[in-house]
TrEMBL record:
Residues 544-622 form the AMP-binding enzyme C-terminal domain. Its EC number is 6.2.1.1. This is Acetate--CoA ligase. Residues 44-88 form the Acetyl-coenzyme A synthetase N-terminal domain. InterPro entries: Ac_CoA_lig, ACAS_N, AMP-bd_C, AMP-bd_C_sf, AMP-binding_CS, AMP-dep_synth/lig_dom, ANL_N_sf. Signal peptide: none annotated. GO terms for molecular function: 3-hydroxypropionyl-CoA synthetase activity; acetate-CoA ligase activity; ATP binding. Pfam families: ACAS_N, AMP-binding, AMP-binding_C. It comes from Haloarchaeobius litoreus. The gene is acs. Gene3D superfamilies: 3.30.300.30, N-terminal domain of ligase-like.
């Protein structure tokens, strides 16, 4: 197919391939929220974090910016009191901006809804009143299992209003995943919905939620949002309530925002780690909200009059921080889209950017690689000149995709911020500041002001320019996780044991990413160094997938690794040993795939299931994942000399070739 994709590519190669650094345009710098280089020096003093806290309204002033007395259990803005819902909603209404759009929502089939700050205020209050009526008290964890419907941020803010932490479970996750998270958090309340649209089909979500609830060990009150109307009638049953009826019953009611201590939990978010058990990352009200507001201001350059679009799902941390809390705290208009980027056509995103006159667009490299594959003719159909800034997050971005994004979406006018951060860090950590820094495609940039990130070798010594090592952060920041829910011990062992020196009270946070440093102090993040995969920007634990596979009758053992994938970044490769008496056939393969989808969700679906009589193991019996990765990637095999069973590697490789 000789279309404009190829022409565009040729032109891009010619003009941009050689260029390694890019400067933000004068026009951007002139209007940028932050453009003074002195900011880096200013933030060497932790007191500078007041600047972040100053973006919020506090009910009671804090005494101390940072309390380090119980490191690594740091506390920020101690004894300050505030409410996140007040900061994201009420104050904008009070400041004369009640008629500005807070949330603009678009369904996959094209329905639209606009919530002004006043609408949001009314809806959040009514649902907060309804939650209280159901029995939700301060500090009760409310789980949300919802797709991208406006009731999701409304429910999050309603919880924040009454001081009930939320725990949002990505709607694409399975019933089992929901049950595990509700049990771990002992959550007695669930907000979910009947269903949603995917590529035009109405999906039944309630069924999955019900199945999950059957695995919850305690009683649960459930609220069900009616997204699909007549398209899907669901039976509510005992302990289930219709969202619409609940809010109607509380129409016009007001709930005073509960003043929360800065260190009180705002939400929990479960994320994958190296073991099968997901980690309940705890974020707080004062530090987290200050941090996401500050980074939305400094990095995304959000202004109240902007229309800002982050295409993530609110079920992930990116959506929490940069669809809901950061943008709304700054009083901007945040756009929410329910569906897929290629429905009804591959220009859906660009058509929306044009129609809504989007100012900033923030997405993941996996999406950019898909756009690139689809070709330039789709963005070219639309006027994208409203865009002022572009961002990426979730995984490393290769320079070619960066340049494509910069040219074909940003028209070489918009700075691109490649933002490295994690569920645990709450907000962005390593990126250029768009109004200051030179951009280098493929490298996220220097640590943000006040973030002391360092690339170190195995012994914890900083590496030199041009060298690779491990990314570490050796000073606390306000958005950091405070602990793992009900598991302080695991918090310390997971994040603070590798490079800290307890004796000298030196605490170093280890995010478990590999990184490279250049001569200008720019950091290129290379990816996870633990057994966590990054599939389309989503974190998946290999252990979780393996335990789903060994749960399938007929499977004796499984090893899961990531292999390169053009669009997804990484794809799941599963090596499986069958039990005696079971045939390694397509039927079993199908069951394995189904087992993984049931246990985790379709995002974890294996790209390939490779049956093998043995797995490569070291003499001490550890599976050599590195070799399995080489096989998945079709790479030359690494050293096999330490294996107990070196022959097996060639044997497996031949099976993949013929697969
Ligand atoms: C926000 C988010 C975190 C992991 C992280 C790293 C990878 C995120 C990145 C990046 C290279 C970037 N990651 N941003 N790698 N460059 N700009 O994605 O949180 O889901 O917890 O994933 O994602 O490996 O450790 P989370």
């Amino acid at each position: 197919m000789a279309d404009d994709t190829e022409d565009g590519e040729v032109e891009l190669e010619a003009r941009l391939a050689e260029q390694d650094t890019f400067e933000p345009s004068d026009a951007f710098v002139e209007q940028a929220n932050v453009s003074d280089e002195g900011i880096y020096e200013e933030f060497e003093d932790p007191e500078a974090w007041e600047r972040a806290a100053d973006l919020l309204d506090w009910d009671e002033a804090y005494d101390q910016v940072l309390d380090e007395s119980d490191a690594p259990f740091y506390e920020w803005f101690t004894d300050g009191k505030l409410n996140a819902s007040y900061n994201c909603v009420d104050r904008h209404v009070e400041n004369g901006r009640k008629n500005q759009a807070a949330i603009r929502w678009e369904g996959e089939l094209g329905e639209t809804k606009t919530y002004t700050y006043l609408d949001l205020y009314n809806d959040v209050n009514e649902f907060a009143a309804a939650l209280r009526d159901l029995g939700v008290g301060e500090d009760d964890v409310v789980t949300m299992y919802m797709p991208m419907v406006p009731e999701l941020p409304i429910a999050m803010l309603a919880c924040a209003r009454i001081g009930a932490p939320h725990s949002v479970v990505f709607a694409g996750f399975s019933a089992d995943a929901l049950a595990t998270r509700m049990n771990a958090a002992e959550s007695e309340y669930l907000v979910t919905c009947d269903g949603y649209y995917r590529r035009g089909d109405a999906l039944n979500h309630k069924e999955k939620a019900d199945e999950g609830l059957r695995g919850v060990e305690h009683d649960v009150e459930t609220v069900v949002v009616d997204r699909l109307g007549d398209e899907l009638k669901v039976f509510l049953g005992e302990h289930a309530h219709d969202y619409g009826e609940l809010v109607d019953a509380h129409a016009g009611e007001r709930v005073d925002p509960v003043p929360r201590d800065a260190e009180d939990m705002l939400f929990l978010m479960y994320t994958s780690g190296t073991t099968g058990e997901p980690k309940g990352v705890k974020h707080t009200t004062g530090g987290y909200l200050s941090y996401v507001s500050w980074t939305s201001h400094a990095v995304l350059d959000i202004k109240p009059e902007d229309t800002y679009w982050c295409s993530a799902d609110i079920g992930w941390i990116t959506g929490h921080s940069y669809i809901v809390y950061g943008p709304l705290a700054l009083g901007t208009t945040t756009l929410m889209y329910e569906g897929t980027p290629d429905y009804p056509d591959r220009d859906r995103i660009w058509e929306m950017v044009d129609r809504y006159q989007v100012d900033q667009f923030y997405t993941a490299p996996t999406a950019i690689r898909a756009f690139m594959k689809w070709g330039t003719k789709f963005p070219e159909r639309h006027d994208l000149s409203s865009l002022r800034l572009l961002g990426t997050v979730g995984e490393p971005i290769n320079p070619r995709a960066w340049k494509w994004y910069y040219k074909h979406i940003g028209d070489e006018e918009c700075p691109v911020v490649d933002t490295w951060w994690q569920t645990e860090t709450g907000g962005m950590m390593v990126t250029t500041l768009p109004g200051i820094g030179e951009m280098k495609p493929g490298s996220a940039g220097p640590p943000l002001p006040g973030i002391s990130a360092e690339v170190v070798d195995v012994s914890g010594e900083p590496v030199g320019a041009g060298e690779a090592g491990y990314l570490t952060v050796n000073r606390p920041w306000p958005g950091m996780l405070r602990t793992l829910y009900n598991n302080d011990e695991r918090f310390v062992s997971e994040y603070w044991s590798e490079y800290s020196d307890e004796e000298s009270n030196r605490w170093v946070y280890f995010p478990e990413d590999g990184a490279k440093l250049d001569e200008d102090g720019y950091i290129t993040v290379l990816g996870r160094v633990d057994d966590v995969l990054n599939v389309s920007g989503h974190r998946l634990g290999t252990m979780e997938i393996e335990s789903a596979i060994v749960g399938v009758p007929g499977v004796a053992e499984a090893a899961v690794v990531g292999g390169h994938h053009d669009v997804k970044g990484e794809a799941v490769y599963a090596y499986v040993i069958t039990e005696d008496g079971y045939d390694p056939n397509d039927e079993l393969r199908g069951k394995i795939i189904e087992g993984v989808e049931d246990a985790i969700g379709p995002i974890a679906r294996p790209e390939a299931v490779i049956f093998t009589p043995e797995l490569p193991k070291t003499r001490s019996g550890k599976i050599m994942r590195r070799l399995l990765e080489d096989i998945a990637n079709g790479d030359e095999l690494g050293d096999t000399s330490t294996l107990r069973n070196p022959d097996v590697v060639e044997d497996i490789a031949s099976r993949v070739g013929g697969d």
